[in-house]
Amino acid sequence: MTDDKVSAAENEQINFGVLDCLLGYKLRRAQMVFFDSFSAACSDLGISPGLFGVLVVVKENPGLTQTAVAKALGNDRSAMVAVVDRLESMELIERRPSKKDRRSYALYMTPHGKTFFNGLLERVRAHEDELCQYLESGEKKQLLDMLDRFPR
Amino acid sequence: MTDDKVSAAENEQINFGVLDCLLGYKLRRAQMVFFDSFSAACSDLGISPGLFGVLVVVKENPGLTQTAVAKALGNDRSAMVAVVDRLESMELIERRPSKKDRRSYALYMTPHGKTFFNGLLERVRAHEDELCQYLESGEKKQLLDMLDRFPR
DNA sequence: TATTGTTATACTCTATAACTATA
DNA sequence: TATAGTTATAGAGTATAACAATA
């Protein structure tokens, strides 16, 4: 196939119709970009966006139960089991038996987890800054503010 | 459990730490809200956000191949097979043998598909407007513009 | 050789229901 | 009776590799 003679169907621009003004579609596309970028930056450390969220919440709120972390992040508590298993096997967080309620665990970040998290956070910030180059000064704040307004 | 005496761990506000200023996290949360709203509005019609995207692209670009639609929407062509099967079984689109290339199909929306799409679009617009109540005048345009700038 | 549609496969994520031990 | 963690399970969604037909 030559460069100056490609079929119309291949060369033609796609018409996205109503998708071009649908927030749901644009949010999904943008989120895919961020997801891929995050993965490229952190997958060699074994951390996905979902695992990162759990790490942050456990770090900032030591002693929370699995169910409380799941609720905070909008996940189901059944899905937390494998996540906590994995983060515990990486020795980043630990389950401690709750003293008040023998049904539940209190989650804590380990000392190694805190060190690991510092390096991880550098990667995450770099990935974030990389993508924020497409925003003008002040726009990131506007964007975060708008995204925060959609109710859960 | 009484209302005025709940445990600190349950009542305490969660500290989201760095997540509060990470676009990737906020985009995911917002997208989940839109996804759930879309599903609530359209799932009884058997249409998910992903199927809707395919419908729009086929409607606006009659005659595209499956691979071209997949590329436009950022999906893998192998995933298109089940999607087109389903939309064809709903008699919304149809595969026609391509005249130029006997390997591929040209995709078209059926007359029934066009009628169906009009009703579907009303639902989608209502769902979009419902969520846009949380944005001030002019902000939706700003938001779409910013989301569009992140490169694919 | 390369590409289209297809199949098989697998992996992640997510959601539901049911079980146990505790409350 | 209700809840926490767990398990099993199933459904999306997504990605890879390979194949037959065709280019």
From TrEMBL, chains A, B:
Keywords: DNA-binding. It holds the Pfam family MarR_2. SMART domains: HTH_MARR. GO terms for biological process: response to stress. One of its GO terms (molecular function) is DNA-binding transcription factor activity. This is DNA-binding transcriptional regulator, MarR family. Residues 20-152 form the HTH marR-type domain.
